[in-house]
Amino acid sequence: MRLSRYFLPVMKETPADAQIVSHQLMLRTGMIKQASAGIYSWLPLGYKVLRRVEQIVHEEQQRAGHIPMLMPTLQSADLWRESGRYDDYGQEMLRIKDRHDRDMLYGPTNEELITDVFRSYVGSYKDLPLTLYHIQWKFRDEIRPRFGVMRGREFLMKDGYNFDLTKEDALHAYNRHLVSYLRTYERMGLQAIPMRADGGPIGGDYTHEFLVLAETGESEVFYDSQITELKFGDRQIDYDSVEQCQGVLEEFTSRYARTDETHDGIIFNNQVPAERQRSARGIEVGQIFYFGTKYSEAMNAVVDDGKGGKVPVHMGSHGIGVSRLLGALIEANHDDKGIIWPEGVTPFHCGIVNLKQGDDEADGACEALYKSLTAMGLEPLYDDRSERAGAKFATMDLIGLPWRITVGPRGLKNGVVELTSRRTGESEELPPEQAVAKIA
Ligand code: ATP
Ligand code: MG
Ligand code: MG
Ligand code: MG
Description:
This protein has helices spanning 21-28, 44-63, 77-83, 85-88, 111-121, 167-187, 242-253, 265-271, 294-298, 322-332, 360-375, 389-399, 409-413, 432-439, and strands at 32-36, 39-42, 67-68, 74-76, 94-97, 103-106, 130-139, 154-164, 193-196, 207-213, 219-224, 257-259, 277-292, 302-304, 310-312, 314-321, 334-335, 338-339, 350-354, 380-383, 403-407, 417-421, 427-430. It is α+β, with helices and mostly antiparallel strands. The site of adenosine-5'-triphosphate has 14 residues, from strand 8, strand 13, strand 16 and helix 10.
């Protein structure tokens, strides 16, 4: 992409209404524009990162054997009356009437809709296990939308639902989700710690929230510092192996890590030596939940069990806050100059800064770099505007691409360009081909 032809409405001033750094930076870099409270337009740069995050979520879900689909945003109230949640959900649900005076709602989540899909087609244990998921916009009329996309009213969520014959099978699905989530967040360059959460009105011990530690997080968390040393890394996992998935769950959840909802000071003190006790703030970027037959019983989602009987299926639901992740990523990756994108989600792989636009040699070298990066499947952002070098550098630092290649007549005389890492700030001079090779 050539910056002269792109749409990147960068702001110099920090917007006064944004309280936290990720919100400020998303506005300043022209990633989002508020449309109304808690509702945003995703401008080209923000949309690009959103798509990259979404892509990683898709890849990791499908790697785990989960099947993508798409359900609508608007739902009929009837299904929610069947499950009993139409009245329970309260004011977070946006209720709408259509022209025929029928009750509709903008989905805050999809348990009812997916259970209806399931029961319409599946009637036998032979079709299980099954996990379906989608990535779709949700609406929750949050009492206090704030922090930009972190607590929006309209937000993008991946929500997946498993259907299993037995509790045991459903717990394997739970573990599979835990593993796939660990991989997902790590690929984005984020550490998200599974913490024991509160089962809410449904109850049960089988729920974990994934939290990214950050001062601006809305959750209070308590944990054993050893947990921050755990990495999933590039180990191989067989998602069909009950033992392997269970092993990962045990490894990542055996140390104390709880949100304030389940925190117990006595257990904390008994289990964790004082020097390893931590309390901090965290951002909830996902949650997994086994809830058994709550919806399948209420909505009659049953299968024949192969022994002549019919049984309600065991279910769980598993969510990732796709749009919230952008805020979490920036909270965890920035400095006073701007964003520092992890390679896994960066909107462009590198920036090219031409120090002397209009100079034949500099322009030619930039074009050649642009071509060879593109030929390698990389996406460069070429700042080809006739701006001062300082302004070009400031924009690149603000939008936070991992690499910057600076091209100017002086370097070109010696056959070199400058390659700068956004994260370390270190620069080196090297021939253009070598700069390209380093980025690839
Ligand atoms: P919170 O505790 O922050 O209100 P939640 O527990 O109500 O979140 P879930 O129902 O678990 O949310 O939804 C799954 C994921 O969707 C959450 O882990 C979070 O990452 C994301 N999410 C929930 N509410 C919002 C929101 N208002 N804006 C952006 N993302 C959200
Ligand atoms: Mg909520
Ligand atoms: Mg929550
Ligand atoms: Mg939650």
